[in-house]
Amino acid sequence: MATIKSTSYSIYIGEKSFDALNTFLTKNKYSNYYIICDEHTFEFCLPTLLFHSPLLNEAEIIELESGEDKKTLETCLQVWGALTDTSADKKSLIINLGGGVISDLGGFVASTFKRGIDCINIPTTLLSMVDASVGGKTGVDFEGIKNHIGTTCEPKAIFVNPTFLETLSERQITNGYAEVIKIALIADADFWKELKKLKSVKEFSSEKVIAKAITLKNSIVKKDLHENDLRKSLNFGHNIGHALESSLIDQKKDILHGEAVAAGMIMEAEIALTLKRISAKECKDITDYISSIYKNIKITKETETQLLKYILHDKKNIGDELCFALPKGIGSYELYCGVQMDVIKKVIGNY
User: Fold this and answer.
1) How far apart are CA 105 and CA 117, in angstroms?
2) Could you say which DSSP state residue 331 is in?
3) Which of 88, 242, 286, 349 could be stapled to 92 by a disulfide with Cβ–Cβ 3.0 to 4.6 Å?
4) What's the average model confidence in pLDDT over 264-288?
5) pTM of the model
């Protein structure tokens, strides 16, 4: 089992992470346990968790509907209500068992209930393992804008067990792999070279790849927890990616976060090329590899109009300036403010 130290907590990776979980639960002696899951993790993951961690057999189960469109304040009201109705107190523990929606929403609920109670994350998707569960960002979507309402509140521990990935479809694995690609492109050129050799979803989700991606993200988070500077690099592909995801969800179209971010990285790589942050060869390298894994997303005129509207609400923007986290050569990044809207429109058109 690999153990990674973050700012104030540890991340345990591997099949023996259940042992670490049991040690954590025994040591901390919480008054109540609450497991937040969705219908999928309730069916496929909860039985495994309860089998390996008998202390949780008396936990209250809060089952939510899955989907990004359920990551709302309305859902938070349901969870806050369940906690209140069952007399949760300051010494209660919330256990987020699921993907990015569960860790984002569950973490937000924990950070606000009674001004904050403890939570831990047990990610069950590749996306959540390598990105969403790590770093303390919590939040919900508001008026269609991704993660518009939220807090920075770190979990007390994260337990990453790759065996949960056996329950996922290939599409869900490639969904999470987009965040692995992102961290390599902005943080480690050698890791990027390693990724380009990978061909199968089994390779995309190996424990080695997961541990490397978490290590790279964690090293950035430890230097800039509250996203004042360096942590903004983790948003490469997300200005356009988040906006595209929100636009398609508005239209009730089938889209996953990683698929939108993959498209966002292709378009934002072209912005980086236009601004002379990367070379034409590097831009082609990025585009060719991502396109070999992800299908192009059709962007209609309606989608483009909504997409541009959402880009204006990106959290990195300063006043009227549009700010993008762009590669500055593969393996490093630069926050570039002042990207012109006509450049954005051009790369969307080219895509």
Assistant:
1) 14
2) T
3) 88
4) 98
5) 0.94
